[in-house]
Structures are given as C-alpha cells and as structure tokens.
Amino acid sequence: SIDITAEARDQYDMPMGGQTITYSVSPASAGTIDANGHYTASQVGEATITASCSDKQASYVVVNTISANLALNKPSTAGHYVTPIAEANDANLNSYWALGPNRPVDEMWWRVDLGETYDLSLVIIKWEGACPTEHAIQVSSDDANWTDVATKSGWPEIGRNDDHNYQFYPINAQGRYIRVKASALRDVGWGMNMYDFQAFGTV
C-alpha cells in the first residue's frame, strides 16, 4: 500500500483552503483508495490513481507488485552484445545491454535465469530509444522449450521518463527462465538497448 498526497493550488501556485480532494482508481479492480489517499493494491499490474478537486485533476501511475525483483543480478545471456549483458538487470539506469546494430533476427533476444521455478505475474522493461516494435516475453522451465506469455507491438511510450520507455507485461505463467525475443526493431541499424529488466512472482 502507499499514501497519495494531493493539494489544491491556484494559478499562482498558492494553496487553496477549504477544497475537497477526491481520489479514484482505474481500473477499479486494481485496488482501493480511501478519502485520505491511502491506496491498497488488489492485483498485480498497472493502475492509474486520479486526484480531483472541482474541475481540476492530476493522475499518478503506479505498478502493483507482490514480490521483490526476481531478476535482479541473476545470470543472463543474449543472442549478441556490444555492452555487458548483465547491465540489463543490475538496476543501474546509467547503463544498458545493447544488442548491436544490424544483427539477424535469430540474435534478437535476451534471457535471465531466475535460479528456480516461480509463478510469474509481471515483467517490467525499461527500453532505450533503440527498441523492438514486435517482441514477445517467453518463459521456459528447461532453457530449451519456450512459450510466449505476452506479446507487444509498436514503440513503447508508456510511462516515458527521458529516453527510458517503460513497458508493463502482466503474465500468468510458471518458469525458471524468462526471455525477451524480438522479431522487428524500430531501426535495425540502432539495434535493441535495454536499461532494465524486472520480473515479479512467487515460489
């Protein structure tokens, strides 16, 4: 759970007394929020919390998770690399795994070994501008047979922060290995650059 604080201010950025702030959550199934802004998640995934006062609104995007990041600093491999593969899951947004330019489709992948089998519920990836436009999240129990559990099309724009493009992948699958497999890139001459890969779930 988290606490959201909102304050009504006028055009001069001065506090406006006597104003009532109301809160709402979308989708409604994501969680509940009380009159004081205390939000409690009820499912994994992305939720939008909106604070309203008179005809003014402000929205906040939150991500509901139920575990620590399972992929953090776990062993990883990739089809090709020009920067260290491990920079995709070290939580350092000043570095990234880079596929490299003009690579064939069969090299457009990155995978992580979680060390044991988990019930997986959510993957979050922070992309650089060099990103895939067609890709899948795949899981495996043996690092040989892969199943698509989520697919995405188009250049990610969700939750944009500078050139870090966030994408959220709610999934419902069991696996020890997770792989990002692209079939098309925004620009093959740029390659595919991933700042951060996160995975969430339970044993």
By oligomeric state, this entry counts as: single chain
Can you give the mean pLDDT?
A: 87
Please estimate the helix content. under 10%
Task: State the order of secondary-structure elements, H for helix, E for strand.
Answer: EEEEEEEEEEEEE
Biggest sheet overview: 7 strands, antiparallel
For the secondary structure, the number of strands is 13
N- to C-terminal distance: 22 Å
Structural class: mainly beta
Residue stretches low in confidence (pLDDT < 50, at least 5 long) are 158-163
Topology:
Blueprint: E1 2-3, E2 22-26, E3 31-33, E4 38-41, E5 45-53, E6 56-64, E7 76-78, E8 97-98, E9 109-127, E10 132-140, E11 147-153, E12 165-185, E13 193-202
Antiparallel strand pairs: 1-4, 2-5, 3-4, 5-6, 7-9, 8-13, 9-12, 9-13, 10-11, 10-12
Describe the structure.
It is a single chain. This protein is mostly beta strands. It contains no helices and 13 strands. The protein has strands at residues 2-3, 22-26, 31-33, 38-41, 45-53, 56-64, 76-78, 97-98, 109-127, 132-140, 147-153, 165-185, 193-202. Strands 7, 8, 9, 10, 11, 12 and 13 form a seven-stranded antiparallel sheet that branches. Strands 1-4-3 form a three-stranded antiparallel sheet, with no helix packed on it. The protein has a three-stranded antiparallel sheet with strand order 2-5-6, with no helix packed on it. A hairpin with a 4-residue loop joins strand 3 and strand 4 (38-41). It is elongated and about 60 Å long.
Q: What's this entry about, in short?
A:
The protein has 203 residues and is mainly beta. Helix content is 0%, strand content 51%.
